[in-house]
Amino acid sequence: GAIGAESWECGEIVSIYHDSPLPKGKKRPAPSSPPPPLFIEIRWFYDPNDVKLRASASLAPPPQTLPLHGSLYPLLYETDHVDTVPAESLVSPLTLSPTPSSPPSVPQFLPAPYFYSMRRQSLMPVTDDAPSRTRRGRLYATTLQDPAVKAALTAPPLPGTSAPTPATGAGRLNSAISLLSLSAANTTTSSSHLAERTTERASIENFLTAAVKSRGSATSALFIAGPPGSGKTASVNHVLRGLNAQRAAAKLPDFKVVYLNGMELRHPYEAYTRLLEGIGGEEQRQPGAAAAVLERHFSTKPPAAAGGSKKATPADGRTVTVLVLDEMDYLVTAKQTVLYNLFDWPTRNSLHGLVVIGIANTINLPERLLPRVQSRLGLLRLTFKAYTVEQMVSILKTRLSESDASGCFENGALEFAARKTVGLSGDVRRAFQVCQEAAKSVMEAAETASTEAGAPPPKTTVTVRAVVNAVKAMTDVPQLQSIRSCTDLEALLIVSLAAMLASTGREEGGIGVAELRTKMSGSAAALGDQKYLPIPSWNELLMMLNRLDESRILILETPKTASMRTAAAGSAGVWPLIKLNVDVFDIKDVLMSSDHSKLAEKFLASNMMM
Question: 0.70 exceeded by the pTM?
Answer without folding.
Answer: no
